[in-house]
Specification:
By secondary structure, the protein is of the alpha+beta class. It is 17% helix and 41% strand. It starts with 14 loop residues before the first helix and ends with a strand. It is globular and about 30 Å long. A 4-stranded antiparallel beta sheet has the order 1-2-3-4.
Length: 71
Amino acid sequence: MTISSSPPPESCRPPAFDTGMQRLAADPYGHGSTPVKADADRREATVSGAVVRYYVSNAVLTVTVVHVVYV
């Protein structure tokens, strides 16, 4: 799986965040993630201190991050 991003650039992200996102991408329903509202494919998880909200699409094996909040 390839991770691509828009700001913040890779040089601003801690390496642990990329590692955590790779683990999350490999098992998007695991790693302490929880469904958002009643939609099991709309998920939220904490990755290296960042709250990540994402969608899972099994049809095309894609995890789309829609919101990241660094805390």
